[in-house]
Write the structure tokens for this entry.
Amino acid sequence: MPPGDIQSSRPVVLIAEDDPSQRMLARVALEQAGFTVLEADNGHDALDKADRQAPDIVLLDVEMPELDGFAICSRIRKLKHIADTPVIMLTGREDDESIRNAYDSGATDFISKPVNWSLLGHRVRYISRATRIGRGLRESEKKNRAFIKAIPDSMLIVDKAGRVLTHHRGKDGSRLLDECASDGRSVMETLPPTIAESWRKQIAGVLNSGEMSQSEDHIEANGAHCFYETRMVPYTADSVLVIQRDVSEKKRADAKVRRLAFFDTLTGLPNRQSFLIQVSEALREAKASNSRLSILYFDLDNFKRINDSLGHSTGDALLRGVARRLEQCVRRADAVARFASTDTSVQVARLGGDEFTVLLRDVQSVEEASGVAERILSALSQPMHYHGQQFVITPSAGIASYPDDGDDVDTLVKNADMAMYSAKAQGRNCVSQFSGTMSVRSLERLDLEDALRKAIAAGDLELHYQPKLSLQSREVTGVEALVRWTHPERGPVSPAKFIPIAEDAGLILDLSRWVLEAACRQLERWSGGDLDDVRVAINLSGKQFRESDVDDQIIAAVDAHGFEKSRLELELTEGTLMNDVENTVRTLTRLKEAGLKIAVDDFGTGYSSLSYLKKFPIDALKIDRSFVSEIDAGGNDRSICAAIIALAQSMGLKVIAEGVETAEQLQHLRFLGCDEIQGFYFAKPMPGEETAAFLRRYLRKRQRRLSLADDTPPVQAIEG
Ligand code: C2E
Ligand code: MG
Ligand code: MG
């Protein structure tokens, strides 16, 4: 290897010696020992090579021209990049003075002349290795210091008796440790007694086993709770490193997250998530112990109405009231009998909205579960008071039990929910046990509900129009708007099926708003031309009619489209009218005064009392289809139709017969003096465009009929 080339993996020695023979001997000895050797024959050259080539070790002859070894060594110590390079002095003067000088100038070691060449290599190798190790240690200590500085925890090294050997105060460390650790004293004297005792055991355990131990220390002072996470690891054979962190904040945050994740913020009851966990645990136990469990699912009847009409703050207050009552109720022995005796045998939760659940473990029989549900139901149905007002909230309850009604959480909860729906269907405020036949029906319903919700949101509905005919003038008096919905998979669904679903699922208001708007748009389109006098009737659902501002909504819709108000008719069923007579009269009067026409739909099927009927400002009665369809069958229906027609005429109301399908039915109605008919015989409900075409065609035929004679049925039959 050429001298000066230090790109070698062998350690490099710089030998500064003015005596060429000494230099050569040193070179041979060092090369044999595995070093690469650089040479310098004077002090300046030595310093220059040390500076530029940074050898691993420097051998300096003390006596050299220009600069002596001591001077070179002092300068090397001042050059940062080589300051810690080991420097060995070769000195002939083994006196105290020169040894002191050598060390004072920063020498690592010295070798006295004459040099034992065979030992030189070993000596230099040893010093070089020791330097490397020293450097490594310094490096690792530097890293450790950085680590320790970065660790937020407080640390202690203690001996077996707990005496503090070293203490490091962490940035976020434990106040407990910092306060009780003072070097030389045992922490056992300063720690609270219970913690001291636990530490004593832990320290002994760690020293015995050589394993880490972890614990949590808790202190309560002045009502504040502090939590510390403590780890102990063996440090030496008889000392232990203790690392402690204050986790109080984290504990508080965890508790808050837990509360938010598992408890309902409105009522403070466990939420759906925690209920599902409870059921899953209870189910595991029930399976292991071969016992039964029941889920009681409560839903408040018509709660949406309270929310809608009285506002959410009242709704929220009542929900909190229901939650408290439910809690008290499950705690009271008379409500849940023996379930009150053990804490965990009964658990209450709020699943969301107005849905609450109760989980009963270790249930003896179906009857026992329904007994509990009945008692809860009656407790919840007692009047509640809020801001001086009294409310009666009735729930409907469904029950599903393991093992009869499902053996997994999802199935049980779903089936309890279905049973609850069935309780609603049975007239609400009652308890229903799940049964297998519920499922298909309910699933179908849920599916319809879901699809309908989407259709309403997307405006995927249509209005068809069915014309009504005056038997006297033979003119079309108007059309009835009937909503149509086509389910994406099932095809067209009858409104008789989806309107009740929309009412139950709280979708009816949106649907009704859509219908009102679509009908008004159609009326506007038909305005100003040959169809300018066509009237459109819309059906109002009970829920829609009970909206406090239904009259404003309707009037505003008509105004927005700018047609005569008398062109919009409203059809209400008897049930809707009779629901809240006073309000109904007020609302109808307002609508009527605004110019709208009002008809009672499906007349004869409800229970309207005639005395009440007189109170309502109505224009027409529509005889229900069921009477019309049997009018020619020789039964009662003909006399019922006759009575309705006579009644209507005595009250000055127009009568319209619905569902007229045959010429015979028509003849009977004509004979009885019915004013108008509607039915497939004359025309089926049709889309808007088709309706317009029909109306124009009919108009033309009428005009022709007035001049010529038109024999084509059904006009022939109608014309009589
Ligand atoms: P409705 O108001 O009594 O409407 C008359 C129903 O009888 C319509 O059924 C109509 O298609 C049907 N119909 C008409 N002529 C005949 C006939 O000659 N024979 C037979 N068999 N049926 C006939 P649809 O369209 O299925 O509607 C059923 C009910 O759904 C309606 O009864 C009404 O109560 C409700 N409905 C329809 N559209 C709406 C709406 O937009 N809003 C509300 N709230 N309810 C609606
Ligand atoms: Mg109708
Ligand atoms: Mg009807």
